[in-house]
Amino acid sequence: MSLLARVYRAFVEGLPAAAGLYRIGPSGYPESQGAFTLRLASEMRPRLGLPCPVELRRQVEFPEPRVRINVDVPDASALGWSESAAWDDMAHYYEGLYRTRRP
After folding, report:
1. What is the pTM of this model?
2. C-alpha distances in angstroms, 65 versus 25, 31, 40?
3. I need a labelling partner for 77 at 20 to 30 A (CA). Which of 22, 63, 85, 87 fits?
4. How many folded domains does the chain comprise?
């Protein structure tokens, strides 16, 4: 989300003053939800020291479009974004959340 936030901020800040239709469709991980879930678990395991098991199931309901593809690939380095730091931040957030909810 931190990369998307930077992409959208840069987009809005770069909008021209002239009225018109302007659009951006950023894509950071062009993969299925299942593949992203496996990626997330893989990134969190070493950071949290937890097994982070994943069981992918067959999807039978599709309230959202089956395929949604954004084609604007962000330049993370130009936006000052680090993927590794983003995963670290996410792990830190969830560690803090866990500590505050423990009895």
Report:
1. 0.80
2. 15, 14, 22
3. 22
4. 1
